[in-house]
Amino acid sequence: MVGVGVTEAEVELAERLAHHVPSVEKVLLTNCGGEATFSAVRLARGVTGREKVLKFQGCYHGSHDYVLPNALTLPSAVTVDPDASAGLLPAASASVLVARYNDLDSVHALYDAYAGAIAGVIVEPILHNAATILPDPGFLEGLRELCSRNGSILIFDEVITGFRHALGGYQAIAGVTPDLTTFAKAMGNGFPIGAIGGRADLMDHFNTAKGGDVFYSGTYNGNSAAVAAALATVEVLETEPVHEHTYRLGERMRRGLEQIVADAGVPATIVGFGSIYGVIFAPGPLRTYEQVLGNDQAMFLGYKAGLLKRGILEMPAVNAMRSHISYSHTDADIDRTLEAAAEAIPEAIASAQAT
Ligand SMILES: Cc1ncc(COP(=O)(O)O)c(C=O)c1O
Fold first, then answer.
1. Backbone phi, then psi, for 302, in 5-degree steps?
2. Alpha-carbon gap, residue 171 to 134, rounded angstroms
3. What is the mean pLDDT of residues 112-123?
4. Which ligand 1 atom lies nearest to the CA of residue 158?
């Protein structure tokens, strides 16, 4: 039965999240990441009574109007992209402010211009949706400080980083604690589930608590199949060396790819963290969105096509897509991928030169 009330399994899952994730005192479940960021932004507005939400160029937080502008859409910008989608409510776009990832000055400038109007700051703590840009030392700390000083809600969107990089999310690694956190993806290991969690005094504003003034609902929230999958995932993460294994394979893959691009003499940067890796055909280290957009598209697509010909599917869809290693992958999978890469990269160079 769904949509009737809270189940014991749901409570157990919430308790596991609160146990592991530094920022999480209370939890509500969703069916995907976008629903979690939707509710996080609404909550930030509800508790602060402010309208603006600050996001970063290149970060993707789901398909809803509140956060869609300025994902991987523009060459380089800190103005809001009104054309992210037909049908986007202009008032929703007007409520978005856009800053540059790893550039605290751009955040300061928006706080100067919109003093007292910024409800919250939402950020991918590692910018995985633009290849992988790691936060510079002090960047996440700076956001924490600015939000605390200005009474804004800091939201870490850990839909990619949560569970994948650590059971406590990337916040446990970075040592920076947001006010709210969103999860999905690795949390259900393929099953459709997400979560929003955070400070109890904020979460109590949802109408799931007595007197809550921020509306929250969803027939399939906390449905048994997805909750069982998430609980099973958490249990495996708690009891088996998942991160040790995937981090080791990730490291092998990145070192191997570095050697391959060096041997090929191609200007490329190997990006990644933990179990995530990618090849970006632009000089590194990659600290900014603009640098990632320098990715040579012909090389990138040629390389992915070369891998595919050799039986390895790495998403070519977006010109900065990263790839992921799972617990089920083995050293033999890494060897096979590196062998394919060692052939595909010179092939991509040759075909780029021929065109
Ligand atoms: C960081 C991040 N947040 C939110 C989302 C949206 O999640 P979903 O597609 O489950 O709605 C995604 C999806 O790719 C994402 O990468």
1. -60, -40
2. 13
3. 96
4. 1
Whether residue 268 contacts residue 282, with contact meaning beta carbons closer than 8 Å, is answered with yes
60 has catalytic annotation: yes
| Residues 22-57: tens digit of each pLDDT | 999 999 999 999 999 999 999 999 999 999 999 999
Q: Closest ligand 1 atom to the C-alpha of 32?
A: 10
Distance (Å, whole) CA 334 – CA 339? 9
**Is residue 243 classed as helix, strand or coil in its secondary structure?**
helix
136 in catalytic set: no
Is residue 318 pLDDT above 70, yes or no? Answer: no
Tell me how far the alpha carbon of residue 183 lies from the centroid of ligand 1, in angstroms: 9
Q: Residues 222-238: pLDDT tens digits?
A: 999 999 999 999 999 99
Helices (H), ranges, 151-293: 169-174, 200-203, 224-239, 242-264, 289-293
Indicate which residue's Cα is closest to atom 4 of ligand 1. Answer: 61
Among 202, 187, 112, 215, smallest CA distance to 154 is for 202
List the strands of the sheet with 180-183, edge to edge. 26-30, 194-198, 180-183, 153-157, 118-123, 52-56, 96-99
pLDDT range class, residue 79, cuts 50, 70, 90: low
In eight-state DSSP terms, residue 118 is E
Question: Where are the strands (E) in the chain, listed by range?
Answer: 26-30, 52-56, 96-99, 118-123, 153-157, 180-183, 194-198, 269-273, 276-280, 323-324
Catalytic residue among 52, 60, 65, 66: 60
Helix, strand or coil for residue 1? coil
Phi, psi of 270 (to 5 degrees): -95, 120
Query: Residue 33 C-alpha to ligand 1 middle, in angstroms?
Result: 5
State residue 317's pLDDT score. 65
Residue 185 known to be catalytic: yes
**Across all residues in the chain, what is the average pLDDT?**
94
**Which pTM was predicted?**
0.97
